Amino acid sequence: MNRKLAFLIVALGLAALACSELVVTNPSPQSATIRVSLPDGSVNAITLPSTQSASWVSFEGGPYTIEVLPYEEYVSVLRNLSDSIVQAIVDDRVTSSGDVLQAVRLMGEIRGRIEQLVSGGASCEGVLPYSEFELYGGPIDPAVETITVSLNYDTATNRWSCN
After folding, report:
1. Beta strands at 20-26 and 43-48: parallel, antiparallel or unpaired
2. What is the distance of C-alpha 23 from the center of its chain?
3. What are φ and ψ of residue 71, in 5° steps?
4. How many CB atoms are closer than 10 A to CB 39?
5. What is the pTM assigned to this prediction?
6. 65-81 burial string, b = 16+ CB within 10 Å, else e?
7. How far apart are CA 5 and CA 116, in angstroms?
8. Greater confidence, 74 or 60?
9. How far apart are CA 55 and CA 36, in angstroms?
10. Where are the domains of the chain?
């Protein structure tokens, strides 16, 4: 009986050691705000500075998701600028037809840039490995398996991608 109990304690201890590490790197020149969803249901959001990395450990295998979110402060500034142009037109501060056309063109450019920023985020999915204990209920390798995802920012298109 004591032998079975000792085996069970050792097996559970090794199962606790079986885990995966998810590392997200940002080699790009831009900071990235990311949201990471892990197999255990936890969700984490952080701003990852340029050339930095962050890691999470999961004791469960399964799907994970990484989302790059738009830089909200910049989007907010652009929205405020667009609203100011609209208000200037409404308040008759922009009076000539040439100025109105220029204001409308500028608003279109600003709104296009906002759409580009908001849609320019990336979403990556993958699977953290299941431990042998999770799969078979048997012997496990207590080594940590590391999955690395790299964020990339394309300055020509202002879009994020990940691999």
Report:
1. unpaired
2. 12
3. -75, 100
4. 17
5. 0.63
6. ebbbebbeeeeeebeee
7. 60
8. 60
9. 10
10. 1-67+124-163, 71-119
